[in-house]
Task: structure prediction
Amino acid sequence: MKNISLKVSIFSRVGQLISTKAVGRWEREDITHTYKYPEKSEEERATMLKALRQSESLFSRYYLNEEFNDIMFNFELRDDIVIGEPFSVELRMKNFSHVEEYRVTVILRVETVTYTGKVGSDVKRLDTEVLVKPRDVEDVRLSVSWEEYSPRLLDQSAFNIACLATVHETNFEYFAQDDFRVRKPDIKIQLDEEARIGEELHVMAEFYNPLPIPLKKGTFIVEGPGLSEQLKLKLSENVEVGESAKCSFSLTPELLGKATIAIKFFSKELDDVDGFKEFMTKPRKYTSNGN
Result:
């Protein structure tokens, strides 16, 4: 929005009045008409647009885009995509003109993103040309399957999606991009009973395998109160498609108050799955004889 307001300010003010000293007298002479057509006249608009089209400046492209509003563009991605599921990005183009049709070149691209925000390798790309007829709506969709994006998954399971649409008849360009992550499952942690200081607490943890392939050689890593070091619980069997990875263990809280159990799961096919459970450790129960 700041760029738009700046454009309006520049083009409505710069060059409106060009003056020089009059010949033979100490007066100002207006010579604006010798340098440019009257402001907002057809000749002035045509000259300005011609200059902007020949310019390589990104600023000129913004101004040209403002001149074209026959087609409305909407770039979308469905949110809350679980890892293992396919996803798609879509560009919708609606032509509001009653008479004009437009040829639009569309590029849709999906790339991986590192944890630092750096764009990595291409996952998939679509280049196509669409004819958008008067009062018509056209959709361009790029679908990406698990098999296509899984070999390129990085540590954060993040992607950058981008869209570039060029209207041939006007040189109008629409560009949009966004970052998103496929969501990993959460490990659900359940306590068998109330946590009490000095008493053994039994814990169960599990999560659903969202991938269309089994998870092999899985390991749960556990941290919690009363544990002097991490617990490493290796699964003896694969976690098949549609099944849950499960583990159980015990710990003994040693301090009163708030405590947290943190669990991570790692396997070759799916890693960095985590879960957390906060709870209150209460005092030990007393018997009726005061013990």
In short: The chain has five helices and 16 strands. The longest strand covers residues 119-132. The longest helix spans residues 42-54.
